[in-house]
Amino acid sequence: MRPKDRLRLRIAQEAARIMAEEGIHDRLPAKQKAAARLGIADARLLPRNEEIDEALEEYHRLYRADVQKPHIARLRRLALEAMRFLQDFAPRLVGGVLEGTAGEFSPVTLHLFPDAPEDVLRKLMDRGIPFEEKTASLPGGGKRTADYPALRFRVDGVEVELALLPPELKARAREKHTPKGDLAAVEALVRADAAEKREGTG
Questions:
Q1: Residue 51 half-sphere exposure, CB side, CA atoms within 13 Å?
Q2: Bridge partners (DSSP) listed for residue 155
Q3: DSSP-assigned beta bridge partners for residue 114
Q4: Contact present, 190 and 80 (Cβ < 8 Å)
């Protein structure tokens, strides 16, 4: 392995540890913090997001093997409950809960596509769900990011984050996310998690 690749791997592994243990959800600040801790100032050595995800999977295999699967299964059940409640807004599950890499402090992250953000606020208020308004920064074209309104609330001690995206981005989301995180896909994941649990206890 070349020295540069070795440094990228060290940053990825430290970023994965930070995300798993310190509650940082976003990859960019995690790898920036990891590089700073390792004394690496060259931004060109920062690993790709895919390398962070691989390091996260390895971290969970090594240090959370006994708790990771039930943890992910619980978060997916909570995500499914939220998606059914918000199904009028074409919810999509994204991030570590979908991919199976969510750590102890990871939120359930949903992308919604309402006609207007106020529609989602009204839905939560009608149900009496307290929430916090925030902003979600998501990748745009090239290296740019775009800011969208977002909401955050808690269910059974788990943070749920909703990014409220324009309806015209819905088709792009269907093409981009693999595996797809729509309602049917998450229902299938929850069924698979339950079947695996039964097999493990049978």
A1: 18
A2: 158
A3: none
A4: yes
The amino acid that residue 46 corresponds to is: L
Integer Rg of the chain from CA: 18
User: DSSP class of residue 115?
Assistant: S
State how far the Cα of 8 lies from the Cα of 40, in Å rounded to an integer: 10
21-59 pLDDT, tens digit each: 887 878 889 999 999 999 999 989 999 988 998 898 888
Measured distance CA(121)–CA(130) in Å, rounded:
10
* Side-chain half-sphere CA neighbours of 129 within 13 A: 21
- Asked if 102 and 96 touch (Cβ cutoff 8 Å), the reply is yes
Single-letter amino acid code for the residue at 11:
I
Give kind and range of the element (H or E) at residue 125: helix 117-126
> Average pLDDT for residues 57-64, to the nearest whole number?
83
What is the torsion angle, in degrees rounded to the nearest 10, for the CA atoms of residue 4, residue 103, residue 142 and residue 36? Answer: -40
pLDDT tens, position by position, 162-196: 999 998 888 766 666 545 799 999 999 999 999 98
Q: How many whole angstroms separate alpha carbon 31 and alpha carbon 26?
A: 9
Q: Is 147 exposed, middle or buried (0-12, 13-18, 19+ CB in 10 A)?
A: exposed
